[in-house]
Amino acid sequence: MPVTTNIEFTREEVGLALRNPGMPLEALRRPITPIGMHYVLIHFDVPDIDPASFELVVDGRVRAPAALTLEELRARPAVTLAVMMECAGSGRAHLAPRPVSAPWHDEAIGCAEWTGTPLRGVLEDAGLLDDAVELLFTAHDRGLDQGVEQDYQRSLSIEEAMRDDVLLAYAMNGQPLPASHGFPLRLIVPDWYGMASVKWLRSITAIAEPFEGVQQTVLYRYRSSEEDPGTPVTRKKPRALMAPPGIPEFLSRTRHVPAGRTRIEGRAWSGPDPVCRVQFSADGGRTWEDTHLEQPNGAHGWSAWSYDWDAGEAGDYELCVRATDTAGNVQPLDSAETWNQGGYGVNAVQRLAVRVTERNP
């Protein structure tokens, strides 16, 4: 991606922001994100797919290639999972210098309930051949990226694809998938960043060599420089966010809170290792206090946390929150610690400007 040192967003970034809405952070108070508040990222165009003629092709290195209709997929065993989803570029707008792409602050998140059939069963029916090493997932959306015309494609190893919790999803929060979320069928890969959960799924191809397409080997990689081949972006890192307290100022979004005790609350999540601690700071990260952390809403959901903050004096404060997982990974204090050429996996602590005012007599 091109990189800019300009603090103002480019025309391209503004265009991407208008096409790809994020989740309003006040929705962190809800255990399940409403469809209309869940973040959206669309790489190319939203395809117009007729569900009556839709077929999911399963081919490549399999014994029994198939073309499954939506009705046939719905007739298979169904599972509903709450899955916390996060874009790999969430937090990119805080970086300096900044890769030019979707200019996410902290809002590229959501936790919906996805209903579908486990991918594992479809693969077992197809019969993977011994030389298959990856599953290639191809979407219906097509466009140009990095100068290459392409379908959106991502792959998973056989081991990852055969996990019981990887779904071929056709419903979101009990409703058919909305067009912007992958109607009529998408992949859901819990614990991974959102780029792995391919939308508008057209085909699944078992391949005998690792996939080397643009979205796999050029993009979605942590890089220190343009020459660095990088390491792939995979599972989510630990992160906590707070729902903004008080009321906002319209333009600046600075929060206004009356002096006294205020309940601060939010959600925390991670990838393979669950969050075990969330800490709150009212002084920009100089000192920290433990919050009350609840159990997650399912194996792949997020955890609610809360803290009773006693803001006794009027003035300006910088509130921060950070998460730690059971493997000992802690959110970094500053985005400079997480900077990488692609702007992926940027999970530095949230910083929120709050103005405490005297209570009315």
List keywords for this structure.
361 residues; mainly beta; 6-stranded mixed β-sheet; 5-stranded mixed β-sheet; globular
Written description of the protein model:
With 361 residues, the chain is mainly beta. Strands 16-17-24-23-19-20 form a 6-stranded mixed beta sheet, with no helix packed on it. The longest helix is centred in the first third of the chain and has 9 residues. The chain starts with a strand and ends with a strand. The model has no long low-confidence stretch (mean pLDDT 96).
Short recap of the structure:
By secondary structure, this protein is mainly β.
- Uncertain parts: none
First-residue to last-residue Cα separation = 54 Å
Mean pLDDT: 96
Tally of DSSP helical segments = 5
Which sequence of strands runs across the widest sheet?
Answer: 16-17-24-23-19-20
Radius of gyration using CA atoms only: 21 Å
Profile the largest sheet: 6 strands, mixed
Query: Strand tally, please?
Result: 24
Q: Helix fraction?
A: under 10%
How large is the share of residues in beta strands? 35-45%
String of helices and strands: EHEEHEEEHEEHEEEEHEEEEEEEEEEEE
Backbone structural class: mainly beta
Tertiary shape: globular
Task: Show the helix and strand layout.
Elements lengths: L2 E2 L6 H9 L35 E6 L5 E4 H5 L4 E8 L11 E2 L9 E10 H8 L7 E12 L2 E10 H4 L5 E6 L2 E2 L9 E3 L12 E7 L6 H5 L2 E2 L8 E2 L6 E4 L4 E2 L6 E4 L1 E10 L5 E7 L7 E2 L1 E5 L6 E9 L3 E11 L24 E8 L4
Parallel strand pairs: 2-12, 17-24
Antiparallel strand pairs: 1-5, 2-3, 4-6, 6-9, 7-8, 7-12, 9-10, 9-11, 13-14, 15-18, 16-17, 18-22, 19-20, 19-23, 21-22, 23-24
